[in-house]
Design brief:
- This protein has two domains: 80 residues; 73 residues, Sporulation related repeat (Alpha-Beta Plaits, 2-Layer Sandwich), CATH 3.30.70.1070.
- The chain is built from three helices and four strands, in the order H-E-H-E-E-H-E.
- The protein has a four-stranded antiparallel β-sheet with strand order 2-3-1-4.
- By secondary structure, it is of the alpha+beta class.
- Helices cover 68% and strands 15% of the residues.
């Protein structure tokens, strides 16, 4: 019985401090592991945010370039329109803008043309590349829309 009591006492002395030691060591390792996982997660989130920002910047750059290309193409197309059907001629810019807006609301692709060496601004309802197309369209335009319209040829 003495041996059994001694064995139980020795076993308790060995097991109890060892459990506390392992528990402390284990919780410290768990905390360190949790900190490492949290740090890795924050790095992953930061990388994801950086990637998203780079993609958004690339999309914005592509959009701006696309708008610039479209504007360049529109200006090039307009520069080819040498024969314009004019619906009004004004010295006052506000009057030209008002008439242009009124015809734009009717569905026409109006433009305001500034004449070099003149104070007048011309309001164009349509533009054409060839005189023949412009002349044919002018006849229709005068019959149906504005009888006072005329053709202005740009250089």
């Amino acid at each position: 019985m003495r041996h059994l009591s001694a064995i139980v006492l020795i076993g308790l002395l060995i097991v109890l401090p060892g459990c506390k030691y392992f528990k402390k060591g284990g919780s410290s390792a768990k905390k360190t592991s949790a900190l490492l996982h949290a740090r890795q997660d924050s790095i992953r989130v930061a990388d994801s945010l950086r990637t998203i920002q780079e993609k958004l910047a690339a999309i914005e750059t592509a959009r701006i370039e696309s708008e610039k290309t479209a504007e360049d193409e529109r200006l090039a197309a307009e520069s080819r329109l040498k024969y314009n059907i004019i619906i009004g001629s004004f010295i006052t810019p506000e009057n030209a803008k008002g008439l242009a807006e009124a015809y734009r609301n009717k569905g026409y692709n109006t433009r305001i043309l500034k004449v070099e060496g003149s104070k007048f601004e011309l309001v164009s309802a349509e533009g054409h590349e060839s005189f023949r197309k412009a002349f044919n369209r002018l006849k229709e335009f005068q019959d149906t829309v504005n009888p006072d319209s005329w053709i202005f040829a740009q250089q």
